[in-house]
Fold these 3 entries.
Entry 1:
Amino acid sequence: MAQRIDFHFNVTNRLLYACRVVRKARANNLTLAVWTKDRHKLDFFVRQLWSFEPTGFYPHVAADDELAAETPIVYHTDETLLPARDVLILLDDEVPDNWSVLFGRFGRVIDIVGTSEAERQPARERFKIYRSAGMAPVAHDQGGH
């Protein structure tokens, strides 16, 4: 089970915020995995990762790519393909299938939640699910960042 689950909520742009999390994690030499079931959202995240910082480069590949084992950032819509990493970033409104096993591969899970009620309500449900399983998720209000 993940050592820590953090909910970063009131995030204006989830995908751009995820890129900022990547930047901070990589500055600390951490490896990451990114998951959502939504292929369109994941593709947009990957495009943002290329362009959100003009001088930055963050090596990333799909989790089923032959270079995934040696690439610090992996992503996929199939959570079963995500290899162990320091951090898992969740960009989905649903709890991943078999989440308790999945989370065991990561030291930390960061669940990014937008500002709309359509994103906040499912996040509340995820928070309750994790808490009822004996985890202690921590909420971080990003105040619209």
Entry 2:
Amino acid sequence: MKQIMTIAALGVALAVSGCGKSENAGGTVKREAGNWKTDIKLVKFEVPGMPEEMKSGMKQMMEGASGMDQCFTQEQVDKEDIAAELAKGPGNGGECTWSKKEVGGGKIDVAGTCKANGQTVDMAMNGTIEAKKNDVTITTKGKVPTGGDMEMVLQMTSVHTGPCKPAGASAT
């Protein structure tokens, strides 16, 4: 289960960390500073041999992160660099090699292989990136330690909801 969680965290971390800036000639799209609400939907989760109660637990955990509010200051928005985030990989312990990296003109379409904590997964992110809304589908595929292939598809939608909330808003 821990290794499956690593795969799940990989997709979420990459998507959340780099949803703001474009790197190609299609024009720079930056998220607007302020409060953003992110919803996560687990669209598909297939792991051979995993009991249904564990799958349900994973779905609850992923969707439990829905409704998360984040405050992004103008300084944070100005420093966002999706190209740098994509190159680093998840957290500080992994790296990704991208076979496709098209980010610009309000769209993201990337695919590649990421390594973290001794695991290798194929990952793809596809969707739209706008100043006030991001809608990205993240597909992660890899081998599970018990044998077989796993596949997870997440839908992440982030919407600008206005100025940062003064109390209780978390900063990233």
Entry 3:
Amino acid sequence: MIDIHPDAARHAVIWLHGLGDSGAGLAPLVEALALPSELPIRHLLPDAPERPITINMGHKMRGWYDIKGFERPEDRADETEVRAACTQITTLLTRLEQEGFAPEHVVIAGFSQGGVIASFTALRHPTPLAGLLCMSTYLAAPDALLAELSDAARTLPICYMHGIYDDVVHLSMGWDAKQRLEAAGLAPQWHEYPMRHESCRPQLADVRAWLLARFAP
């Protein structure tokens, strides 16, 4: 895990990478945000374990969970593995709190598979967090959301971002997540960009602004 820990940091972001990537793969995105040095923020970029991925012919790669297919919601994310990953990130949140980072000063962010785990964790976390940022992603176990949504998550600042031309996680899957969150009484921000399954400069500017708003004095 990459742990960027500047002196006097009171805020933290947990960044969760996508399938086949690593924490190191997300580090350039964090650097590109060029967050102000006068607001020191700790960035934690954990690695998913290596596991066989069904849609990739069973080849092993870093992944938070297995994907059998995208046609049915139950195939998009192995629920047992999603819950195990959620436990891993919850443990990281507990560690941060023990080190002096209040939960309300911590954002969970993720891209693609990482966004699935970020949302699954944040929406069930029992104490208020600073925010949830999801990029090019969807919901795991969507039918369980209403029953498992924590009281703390009902006021959670949420931002979803998606590429209009995403051919990996189709835009409709992001819209489905947005609509399910709204049906649960939440109010996610929504941003679309003329891009595929990737990041772009306008999106990075929006990520930067959203994070700064979450950590404003």
